[in-house]
Each structure stands twice: as structure tokens, then as C-alpha cells.
Amino acid sequence: MPHMKRVCPHFLGLVAVCVLSASAHDDLDERKIGCFKLASFFAPAEAGADRNYPPDRAVNVSHLALDMTQDFKQRTFQGQVIFQFKPNGKPVQELSLDAVELTIVSVTSTEAIQGWHSTTNKLIITFVTPVPMDTEAGVTITYHAQPTRGIYFRTPEMGYKEGDTHLFSQGEAIDARHWYPCFDAPNAKFTSELTCRVPKGMTAVSNGKLVSEEKDAATGLTAFHWSQEQPHANYLIAVAAGYFKKLEDKHNNVPLAYLTPPSDFNEAATFFRDTQDIMGFFETEIGIPYPWAKYDQVCLNDFVAGGMENTSLTLLTDNELYTEAMENIIDGDELISHEMAHQWFGDLVTCDDWNDIWLNEGFATFYALLYDGHKNGHDSMLYGLYENARQITGVENDTNAIVRRVYGDPMDMFSYLAYPKGGWVLHMLRSQLGEDLYRRCIKTYLERHQFGNVVTEDLRKVIEELSGRSYDQFFDQWLYHAHHPELEASYSWDEKSKLAKISLRQAQKTDQNVLLFSFPLTIRFKGKFGTVDRPIQVTDKESVFYFPLESAPQMVRLDPDYTLLAKTTLNLPNDLLYAQLADREDVIGRLLAIEQMKDRKDHETVAKLKEVVNNDPFYGVRVEAARTLQSMHTDEALEALLASTHQPDARVRQRVNSAIDGFYRDTAYASARASLENEKNPLILRNSITALGKYAQPEVRDLLIKFLNSESYRNMLAGAAIDAIRSQDDPAYIAPLLETLRTRQANFRTSGIRNGLDTLAYLARNEEKKDAVREFLLGYVNDKRQSVQVAAIRALGTLGDPKAIAVLQTFASADKGSPPQQPAEKAVADLRAARKPVDDFKNLRQEVLDLEKANREESKELQDLKKQFEAREPAPAKSKSKSKPAKKDGN
Questions:
Q1: R_g (Cα) of the chain, nearest Å
Q2: Within its chain, how far is the Cα of 718 from the centroid?
Q3: Other CB atoms within 10 A of residue 378 CB
Q4: Which of 137, 197, 244, 322 is the most exposed place for a label (fewest CB within 10 A)?
Q5: How far apart are CA 591 and CA 613, in angstroms?
Q6: Phi and psi for 862 in degrees, rounded to 5?
Q7: DSSP annotation of 44
Q8: Is the pLDDT of residue 682 over 70?
């Protein structure tokens, strides 16, 4: 699904989660980060949530044909959908389709229809007589819509660039129902075709093969007809249409295409450059050729997630695009490999219901890591696992299992449990089975269930069948129960007996949700005797193990190959710790040594970390050492960082500069100034500009105004200046910021505008005269970009001007479900709480009118309920009359 990056940078970033891409240079949507809702990414199960099960399938859909014509200016479209189906299990008299915010115009069928009607979320079709089980029936529905979900427009009227006009769809999890009537669940598969009619010069791409491209002389529109001849889940139907520029390529016999809006095309070749290599690696690693007719990737303005893996058509956020000047801080490989892995895991085989979504997202996360190891080396893959493990084990009180039926919205399942923890489960399976047997299991799993649906037990059965081992306990503790081992370990050496003692304690709180874990564990000893590995099985809450050795070990490592997801503490004496830090063959050991050193601030520790920052062979270790020096926050740690700024690897250089920026010292300020003069990488420059915000030196204002008015890729440096200006909290910046937003708003991306509005309101919140800022913010409350509209409403609350209450009240009194309603309601409440009593009397009459209106609406609802109740009472018997003949078609 929508992709999420791993913890900085992978978890959106993922989050990824900081989404590196989003945090680095653009729009971090409130709804989803890369593939998921940020608010629910770490959330516990919703209180009172119901148990969820796959819906019944009253019919088997064999084919769906969708035809759509859109009006880009009005942001509407007309559609026709045709279903072909057979009843499943018994004859069907009533057909219920998911349909939200769709205006149904007509319904016809190959079978006689008695009638049809729409509810708020369903289209229900009633047949005169039940459709027999052996009958292939068809239903045709014509409709139109002005969608708020499912289909998204990006037009100049909405503030997007001229010449970049486009639209795109998003079906997962259950948003397909917002743009066509359907059976909106993953537990059914069928073939499909889509025809999209667009103005001259536009392109439309969809799933499968392009059947035809024909211009209609009467309308001037061009119809792109696509056909997906292999069965797939409903949520994977997709379309993107608009003005795109395209690069074409090929992997063996698979056509590849990369599309972007024209203004982003310069970055396309760099961004997509590893696509062929990724596809080739997956075909070899998985053992099954790419399963679809072609593979298109389309970058879109403000896509609703990081990426979406529709069959043969992946839609991506343009926020991940980058320039060569950003060096290796950002690349597209993680996102591209994650979404491409879904073409096998999620598309070829699809979870039967959302409770098994880890079978989609965990696989995609893990296989992106496998590609990282293929391209960048095993240490890079291990570092990705380390970052993910740190994120997973950092979540407190996680009582949710990866596979569970209790959740509110399906999107609640798209969390760290499905992504990084699901990926870790696969890594542990691969480690226990061995790479060759693991590959054979996964290939068999895919071949056995291709173009079908799967549940977690399908994977377990294949593994047990091919390995001859029981994996009930493994699946029970890692997938059907929550959490992970919290392993407290200690080591001691008895010179007299020549025994190394390892004591282990599982410290996690156990209950019905969290078990004591049983797992294999290797303990490695290194010394004059060489390297000795001792495998053990941990089953109890507390265990003690003794190991005879020739001499005292110089290094002790638990889980040296990094095959166990656990939060492990093992406090080692300095000599063993420093030996571990120096072991060039053990990247995880070095990272764990740095973790243990974070609470030490002595001279030797700082010197060791400085040495690591400058000389360790792996960039991730250097990054973590710099981060640890920052956390120490001593003068000596700062001096070590200042002496480490000359880094050829931009990822380390960025981390060192950011660590220095975490200090408030004259030397740190001087370093930021030096970076502004010498650094070329805009991502690092952005950090240095932001760092200026905490300083009051006379030249800071001129520097910030300079960067506020500067030109840079996606106005990145101007955005950093706005961040710094907010930190300055000086009303003197109001005028230049207001001028920049007025005259250069077209140069800012959506996130930049949101940030600018918020900063402007923040700076003016204590001013006596707020009219100019208030009026400027009011100009955005009806912005067609929903996130900008909401940002303007929130900014008015921040501004603290009671004169905005009347306008805000119009949004606060809107439907509870509308996105601006809650922010407006809060803004009004904050403004009223802050104003003087005399202001309350001025608004008392309006409040009384609002209350009267609410009472009238409640009275109408009560009367409507009464009428519904009376209508359900048995009617008195009437004389018989002839019934009207049923119509073949209904409308």
C-alpha cells in the first residue's frame, strides 16, 4: 500500500518515521505518511472497536469494465461501470454494492430488475426473481460524482502549476467506493478494463495493456482503453490522467515507463534509474518472473501517500524526487523497491482481509531491505533492520498483535506492526530456515496462491510442509500475540573455573496479549582462542548458562548475526565494550556499543566516538556516533563534532552538521555560518539556515531575509528561513514574510504554504493591529487544497483575532465529518476563551441563533424518526389489486 519509510530515514522514513523525503522537502499529509495514517501509526487498538471479518461474497465477479469522463475545471466526472457475475452458493435476489458520494443515474441488467435504491454508502439492486447460480449476469450502472476521496484532481484552480494538470485514484484500503460502485473488499479477484477520456494532449494510464487510443471527433476527447487480463483485487484498480512527460525502458520483455508532470521531468531519470536492477533482483530472489504485462510508475503532485502498488501501475508522491545536488542523502530506491515488491506480495497474492495486511506490507518492507543489501552491501541491510528494530522496541505498551481482528478503520492496520515488525518476522524466518529453504517456501507460497487470496495460516502451512518443522509457536508468539522479548542480560567470568556465565531475564510484562517468548539465541565469544559460537534455546523467564572457555573472552556478543527482534541490554566492562566498538567485521556490534556509550561523558568515551565519526568504514555507524555525541551535550562532545565536519559521505556530513546545530554555542553558530558559505548540498544548507533561528546576532536577520527571497529547488531554502523566522519570534519579520507569501506563493509547495501561514499567524499573535494578517489568512480559508484550507483555519486560531470568529463559525457549524469543521471549532473555542467579556455580548445574539437552529434540526430529526416508526407499523388490510409488471431495466 501507500509506502511508509523506515525511521529516519526509512520510517516515514516512513516513519520511515520521520519520512525523510517528506520531512526533507515537502508535503507531510496529516492523513497518511508514505503508506499510512500518522495519527494511528503507533496508536493502540480503538476502544470499543468491533471484531472484523471478511464480508460474504454473494456473487463471484468475473469482470469489471469502467468508463470515465472527467471535467478538470469542475473537478467532477461521469462514469459507467459494468459488472459480470455469477451467484455464489445460492441464487441472488438482491445485489448490494459499496457506493459513497456517487449520484446514480441509471441501473440496467441482463436480468429483470424490480428496482434499485441508494443509501449513504450502498447501492442496492433488487431482481424480480433470484438470479440462478449457473447464470452469468451483468449489471450496468451510470453515475456521476464530485469526489472528495478516491479520485483527486490537481489543477491550476487549486493552486497547482499551469501545464501540470492531472488526476489520480487511490483505492486502498476502502476508497474505491468513492469513485465507482463496487465490492470494496480484498477477498475477491476479477479481471478488469478501464477507459478514460481526456482532453487533447493528455495521457491516461491504468492497469494492464493499452488496448487502444482513439480520438472522438464529436467531443475532441481521446479515449485510452486499458485491459487487465489477470485477476486482481478491487482496491488495485487505478488510473492517472493528465499532462505527463514519459521516459520508456525495458526489462527483458517487460515494458517500463516513468511519468511525471512536466515541471518535475528533469528529475525523472535520476529517480527511476535503478528500476531495471530492482526488477531483475526480485525475479532472481523470489524465483518467479514479474507477473504483469508492463510496469508504469507515475509521480504525482501531493499524492495521498508515499506510493501505491496498483497492479502494473505504481503511483508515487513527487515529494521523493531529488536533484543530484542532494548527493546520497535521498534516493528513490527504497520507495521504488517497496512498491515493486508488492507486485508479487499484495498484488499477485493478496491478503484475504485487512487483519492479514502484514502479508502485503511486511513482505514489501523486508524485500526492500533485501534489495538494499544486494545493492549497498549486507551492512546496509543490517542497518535498516537495526533502525526498524529501534522503532519497534521504542513503542511502549504495545498490546496489539500483528494479526488481529479488533480494529476500527481498516487503515488502522497499516501501522508499524504490519510494516517493520512484519518485515522483521520474515527476517527471523529466513534466519531460522536458511536462505535456500526460505526461498523455496516463498516461491511455493506464491505459486500455490497466485492470483488468489491468502491468510497467515497459508504461509505457515507451506513452511511446515517444506521444512518438516512445527512453526505453531513461532507464529503464535510473533504474529498472534503482541510485543517482543525485553531481554536483560549480564556476563561474568570465573577465572578459576574458566567459565563464562550468561544470565538472561525476559523482563516484558506478560498477560493474555504478551507471552514469554521461546527463541534460539547464539552467544559468541572472541578471544585468544579465536571465535566460539554457542547456540542456546531461551524458553523461561530467567535462565543461567555457563560456557567453558580456554581463557577470558575479549568480546561477548549476544545474537551476533542479528536474527532476533528484541530489546536487549547487556552492560559490558570498558575493555569488552571498546573491543566491540573496534570490531570492523560486526556492524551491529559497533552500533550496540555506541548505544551503551550514550550515558557516559568521560574523556575516553568522547575520544572513541570522535574516532568512530571520522574513521569507521560504515556510514551508519558514523551517523550514530555523531548522534550520540550530540546527546551527551558537553563542550568536549561539541569540540569533537566541530573537528569532524569534513565528511565525504553527505549522509554523515548532514548528521554531523545537524548534531552541531543541536548546541547553543558561539562555536556552533560559527559552524552554521561556515556551512552557509561553503556547503553546496541544499539539504545540509537547509539545516544550517534553520539553526540560525535561535541566535540574535545582528547579521542573522539579513541572512534570513536573504534566504527567504532566494530561489532553490522547491523553495527548500526559503522554507528553512521560515522555520528559523518562527524560532526568532520577532514581529519585525511579519512584513517581509507577508510580502513573500503574497508575491511568491506559486513557488512554494503545499507544505511550504501551510508552514508560511502558520508562522505568519504565530509572529502576529501578540500584535495589537492584526487586520492585514487576518485578511491574508482569510484569503486561504476556501482554498481548494484541503490541507491549505485547514492550515489557514488553524492559523486564524493561532492569530488570536476575535474578528475572525464570524468566518470561522461558518466552518465550525458545518457537518462534523468535514475536515475543516474540527479545526474551526477549536479555533473558535480558543478565540472565545481569550477574548474580553465585552466581546461575548457582541456575539451573544449569534450564539442564541445558532442554538435555536440546532434545536430546530434536532426536532426535525425526531419527527423523521417518528414517521419512520409509523411507516413500519402493519398497515390495515386492503382490497387486492393487480400488480404492475416488472421491468427488464430499472432506473
A1: 30
A2: 26
A3: 11
A4: 137
A5: 12
A6: -65, -45
A7: P
A8: yes
Identity of the amino acid at 694:
K
| CA dist list (Å): 123 to 94, 115, 352, 774, 849 | 10, 11, 23, 45, 38
Q: Which residue(s) pair with 64 in the sheet?
A: 83, 192
858: which residues sit within 8 A by CB, 6+ positions away?
Answer: none
Specify the pLDDT at position 815: 86
- Closest Cα to residue 565, out of 613, 496, 517, 607? 517
Contact criterion met (CB below 8 Å) for 193 and 66: yes
CA distance 719 to 725: 10
CA distance 757 to 439: 52
Q: Is the pLDDT of residue 826 over 50?
A: yes
- Pick from 260, 249, 459: which is nearest to 352 by CA? 459
Q: What is the pLDDT of residues 16-32, one digit of tens each?
A: 333 333 333 333 333 33
**Residue 784: strand, helix, or coil:** coil
Q: Are 100 and 178 in contact (CB under 8 A)?
A: yes
Of 618, 567, 631, whose CA–CA distance to 591 is shortest? Answer: 618
Contact assessment for residue 504 and residue 534, using Cβ atoms and an 8 Å cutoff: no
Q: Identify the helix (H) or strand (E) that includes residue 504.
A: strand 499-506
Interior angle at CA 352, CA 457 and CA 177, nearest 5: 165
- The mean pLDDT value for 503-517 works out to 97
Give residue 816's pLDDT: 83
Query: Cβ contacts of residue 825 below 8 Å, gap of 6+?
Result: 812
Q: Which of 724, 663, 710 is nearest to 682 (CA)?
A: 710
> Per the structure block, which three cell numbers stand in for 108?
440496467
The DSSP annotation for 16-49 comes to ----HHHHHHS---SS-BTTB-HHHHTPPPPTTP
Cell of 617: 568504514
Mean pLDDT of the chain: 91
> CA-CA distance, 445 to 484, in Å (whole number)?
26
Helix, strand and coil in the chain, % to nearest 5: 45, 25, 35
574-581 and 603-615 helices, crossing angle to 10° = 10
The number of CA neighbours under 13 Å toward the Cβ of 678 is 10
Angle between helices 771-778 and 786-799 (to 10 degrees): 160
Residues 310-324: what's their mean pLDDT?
Answer: 97
> Which helix (H) or strand (E) is 499 found in, with range?
strand 499-506
**Spatial separation of the C-alpha atoms in residues 253 and 246, rounded to whole Å:** 19
Compute, in degrees rounded to 10, the torsion defined by CA atoms 307, 308, 309, 313: -90
Q: Which helix (H) or strand (E) holds 97?
A: strand 92-98
Q: Are 615 and 602 in contact (CB under 8 A)?
A: no
Q: Please provide residue 531's backbone torsions phi and psi, each rounded to the nearest 5 degrees.
A: -115, 130
Nearest to 330 by CA among 620, 21, 717: 21
What confidence score (pLDDT) does residue 781 get? 97
pLDDT more than 90, % of the chain: 86
pLDDT above 60: residue 34: no
Closest C-alpha to 526, from 562, 561, 554, 559: 554
Beta-bridge partner residues of 354: none
- CA 643, distance to chain mean position in Å, is 37
* Measured distance between the N- and C-terminal CA atoms of the chain, rounded to whole angstroms: 36
β-sheet bridge partners, residue 408? none
pLDDT in tens, 472-501: 999 999 999 999 999 999 999 999 999 999
H or E, element range at 688: helix 682-691
Calpha distance 70→43 (Å, rounded): 38
Residue 726, classed as helix, strand or coil, is helix
Q: Which residues in 677-701 are b (16+ Cβ under 10 Å) and which e? A: eebebbbbbbbbbbbbbbbeeeebb
147 vs 57, 151, 152, 395, 658, CA distance in Å? Answer: 27, 6, 7, 36, 42
**Residues paired with 95 in a beta bridge:** 125
Closest CA relative to residue 182, chosen from 75, 66, 343: 66
User: Are 162 and 399 contacting, i.e. CB atoms less than 8 angstroms apart?
Assistant: no
206/13 Cα distance (integer angstroms): 28
Q: Classify 74 as helix, strand or coil.
A: coil
